[in-house]
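Proteins fold reproducibly. Take a tokenised chain:

. . .
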Amino acid sequence: MPAAGVAPPPGAALAAEPTAGMLGGAATIPALPPQPEPPPEEAPPVPTATPAPFLPPGPPPPHRTRQTAPPAIGARAAVVIDGRSGAVLFEHEAHIPLPPASTTKIMTALLAVELGNLDDVVEVQLDGRSYWGSVMGLVSGDRFTLRDLLYGLMLPSGNDAAYAIAMHISGSEAVFAEQMTARARQLGLSETLFRNASGLGRDTANAVSAHDLAQIARFAMQHPEFARIVGTRYHTARGSRVIGMSNGNGLLYTMPGADGVKIGWGGRFGGQTIVGSAVRGEQRLFVALLDTPDRTAESMALLNWAFATHTWEEP
């Protein structure tokens, strides 16, 4: 120990200050450094459909073998496409996004088939809105399978069923609508914007081109369950109640070979709409009409014309 007042030589260690432990008192435990806050828990991911190409390259499109003029129509937009190749056989303003009304529900049903378990029992909780227009007839507290809700969506065109399905799949109709638009992009379709699952609304209406609607239907009909539902004329839902329903698509009752897909009514803002499907022999055609004065007659005329004027090569 250096003498008092004498500085220690350079490099010499200073004696430790006496601690309470050295003096017989209680030891002082140094405080721990502040710990970082744990990261917040992430919300569970919203289900998404597996990205997929629209359809793999298929056989060549049909050939126009008769030059008969297509029928005159009053629809604001129209398209006919070949089910096998996706080729456009007729179009009129087919790439202008317009209000699709309840043909919106084709994409709603497609996502439900892709993301949901159709045997799940869904407890319906509606949000208090007045579901004007077409309904399945649901009330809060009803319990039906997702499959029965899909029949209620596609046959009587239930706006209440659309909301119940969106909430079951995604927990929010707004989130579900974003998924609908994203699914269209995955299918290579850019003339589509969905804001709700039903097609209701004017200022916040969905907007889809006739071309994109027909292509969405073409993809959706590859799912056997979807095709079975949209081709059904009558169905009885048996859940917590029994609800009978019939298909409003007049094409199913008037055209041989018709097997889908969906009709809509946009009132004075969108008129009648339809996406139709029909099979003749081994070939299937799709037609989409937006804002048409007579969806059944005009869709049937275009389908009959396309079948009569085109020839398909053997695959």
Q: What stands out?
A: Residues 1-30, 40-44 have pLDDT under 50 and may be disordered. The chain is about 30% helix and 20% strand. The domain at 69-107+173-236+245-311 is CATH 3.40.710.10 (Beta-lactamase).
